[in-house]
Specification:
single chain; 5 helices; 84% helix
Length: 79
């Protein structure tokens, strides 16, 4: 039981470190939640992992990624 609690604390602290690092990426564009989601998803994290790091719901992250995909497809279709 102790190990489980310790593991949760370590994961929480790592999430905080990742979130803080995202804040330091620079620029107002990087501060937007969509930019953070895109960055973390681009690193291969699952939507649930991204949601945990950013303190958002998994549905929010999934919806944001879906909208970003749609915009990218529209942009490619117009070029």
């Amino acid at each position: 039981m102790q190990d489980h609690i310790l593991l949760k604390q370590v994961v929480r602290r790592l999430d905080i470190l990742i979130a803080l690092h995202l804040e330091t990426l620079g620029g107002s564009e990087a501060a937007r939640p969509t930019a953070k989601i895109q960055h973390l998803a681009g690193l291969g994290l699952l939507p649930s992992e991204v949601a945990s790091i950013l303190g958002k719901s998994t549905n929010y992250v999934t919806a944001t990624l879906s909208q970003m995909k749609k915009r990218k497809k529209r942009k490619e279709a117009n070029t």
